[in-house]
Amino acid sequence: MTEIGEKLNRFLRSARYAEKRAEIEKLVEFDSATAADRLADILAHARDRVPRYRPLQDHANPVLADFPLTRKADLRDRFIDLISRDETGRMEPGHYFIHETSGSTGQPVRLLTTAETGGLSSLVIAERLCRHLGLPDTGTELNLGLHYEGTPLVEAGFLPRPYVRCNLRGFDPSSPSIVETYASVVGAFPVDRIIGTSSRLVGLARYCLDRGIRLRPRAVVASYEHLVEEGRRMVEEAFRCPVTMVYATSETGSAAWECRQGNLHFQDDFVTPELLPYDGDETLRSIVLTGLLTRAMPVIRYVTGDLCSPATACGCGLPGTAVGSLVGRSKATLVGADGLVYSPYALLAALSNAGLADFQVLQERPGILQLIVPDATEEARRCVEHLNRDLASYFREGQGFRLRLAATNTFVLSGRGKRNPVVQRLDVAPGAVEGTGYLRSGVRSPAYAGPVAQSPSVP
Ligand SMILES: [Zn+2]
């Protein structure tokens, strides 16, 4: 640890650090005037250089709406057509790397990016967040993010700020090596920042509360998965510190973070957000993003699959398009016994409101949802009973779904260890209209109080 601290201090005084910091400083002020220029520039570049957009060649000044939407399947199936080339068919100069994502949907996607653009915008956005959170120039952090095989327990994190980083896996009492690591690390030294996926932060919070460990970081940053309200409360109680949600996608990098008023502010000068209507539901928008810096393989009008509430005017003083809340992923549809499809968000909110901080919903057959919780306590049983009464008052026999406590306490993880709140094992037709209004009791968000959509059946 000391050795890594010394290494970081040396780096802090080096010319390389000064040079990198200068690059970051140049972009760190939010610049909405540049955003419009960057967008016009990337669209013209895509029209001229990217085979997929050849049909737009005659547009003198193409605007976003002229471009087709890009879905995950397009990135997968049309990879070659999406790479920029000059007149002779050659790729742009630069240092390329291929970035492969397994994603929450399990289908791998490849992206081509350059070291010049791909990395820089993430660093700048990370630096903006450090400033917003008032973090020290150098310090220590616990990182409970998704780690690659072979990630060391302790390492130096150099940019945007030099931090000693301690990489922890999600707490798992059944794994002796994880139990041992937590025992030797958590609470052994002060931490300035805790970052990680929502479910792992909840696990760490529970670990600290159970053992009376008082970590007092300056900031807790949650990413990758939607954090349910009850989980957030537990994390804030454990660390006496507000949680800041960062919204990022593998395809566009960091895109937005949450202000003190709980609104997500998009970093519009690096990524242009479009909030498109979602299946006729007035309270939901589909998040579509265009990356403004990545020229090797421009990501234009990428349909993230994430839903949010409509744009709102936030008075907090932070710039950028603000939305009230991230509602979750549209992919995680539930299938009723009647074959109709339903949005999971009313159910997820109701489970959270019932006091469950840590859970996952797994569906393997129509009409039955298995609830996985770390321990099948009396509280979890009562919650299932209570919600089933509500569900039964809305759905008749043979309609909708019912909850069952799963036979397992083991959460289902994706290929890279990501834990999604809903795991859907059934084939759901894409674009099917979801019913949203089936559970109302105890649901706080107005996003769930809308009328019940007429749902066509799943073919
Ligand atoms: Zn705000």
Mind telling me the CATH superfamily name of the largest domain? Answer: ANL, N-terminal domain
Number of helices: 10
Beta-strand residue fraction: 15-25%
Count every beta strand, where a strand is a DSSP E run of 2 or more residues.
22
Largest sheet: 10 strands, mixed
Low-confidence stretches: 441-459
CATH class of the largest domain: Alpha Beta
Bound molecules: zinc ion
> What is the overall shape?
globular
Q: How many independent structural domains?
A: 2
Characterize the structure shown:
The chain has 10 helices and 22 strands. It has 2 domains: 330 residues, 3-Layer(aba) Sandwich (Rossmann fold); 115 residues, GMP Synthetase, Chain A, domain 3 (2-Layer Sandwich). The chain has 459 residues and is an alpha/beta fold. The radius of gyration is 23 Å and the shape is globular. The chain starts with a helix and ends in a 35-residue tail after the last strand. Zinc ion binds next to loops.
